[in-house]
Amino acid sequence: MPSMQAILFYGPGDARLVETPIPTPGPGELLVKVGAALTCGTDLKSYRRGHPRIFKSLPSPFGHEFAGVVAERGAGVERFAAGQRVVAANSAPCGECEYCREGRESLCERLEFLNGAYAEYVVVPERIVRRNTYLIPDHLTFAEAALVEPLACVLHGLDALDLQLGDTAVVLGCGPIGLFFVNALTLRGLNVIASDRHESRLAAARHFGAVATANAAEMGVDEQVAAARELTSGERGAPIVIEAVGRAEIWEAATRMARRGGQILLFGGAKAGTTFPVDGTALHYDELTIKGVFHHTPRHIHLALYLIASGAINARDYLTANRPLAGTIAALEDNGARRDIKTVILPPGAEPAPLGSLAEKDT
Hints:
By secondary structure, this protein is of the alpha/beta class. It has helices spanning about 40-50, 100, 125-130, 140-145, 150-160, 175-185, 200-205, 220-230, 250-255, 280-285, 300-310, 330-335, and strands spanning about 5-10, 15-20, 30-40, 60, 65-75, 85-90, 90, 110-115, 120-125, 135, 170, 190-195, 210-215, 240-245, 260-265, 290, 320-325, 340-345. Strands 3, 5, 6, 9, 10, 17 and 18 form a seven-stranded mixed sheet that branches. Strand 15, helix 10 and strand 16 (about 290) form a beta-alpha-beta unit. The mean pLDDT is about 95.
């Protein structure tokens, strides 16, 4: 039986490069030869502590942001053919449960996930083939196309907010997701203030449109709140505050950076059981709105691909390093240490991706 290289997850802190059979697509499925996969903060968290919704059995395929070429199609697939360049989302809703019928597809009770991008080949499940897989325009590289998934999550988050031209927005955390928020908010005509603990990420935020930045290194929560509010009109706070870190103390800080009537989006995923304090007086009398947003929907995947393909989002500038498949875990840890923004993971034989202007190295 033909075999391939793949990273499999065996448990927290234990992921291995193994030789495993090339999977065969079932009815409605696609077998895709991976042209490029990308590192993701969710993958790093999942590697360090596991993830019950992603790793349902062990060992498990690993990785979810990718694009490639259709190698084989299962019975009944008519929309795609062998040799076509495609990008697939990492999930698809059922379209039938109560939440799907209400238009809340990210909350689908039977949301089907795809995992296994850190490999030479990956099988795309039938529902994702049918609802959330797209042809890649010729001018996009595989790595650029693979950015549709994280961008779609950000677009979903922005749809939950009432954004007004000229408003000020504070973005807390300038990892890839935070930088996408800076970029997309700037496109929407907002003035963005970005906060992070690493100067290289603040420089990236300015590159993507932030009009002001605050270095939160060695600051306590009170100091971070004061630093952000000082950059807003009359130090009142911001109409929009977006948290993209996933830590309770930053959630709490976000609620204190908003002006009266402000909207706070808690986007970073925290550990199970995480709680944080909220000033009930401010929540009531200042009419604050606190929202959480999870994941994406097929509409947002489609919109993300359009924005990248049109050049409205310069996808290449998020790509800062190439690594071979064997270097996947090291690449995830480098991203966690803020050494890179998005690292392109290359299966054997894949061509290195052209990198953007923020890249310092190509390893």
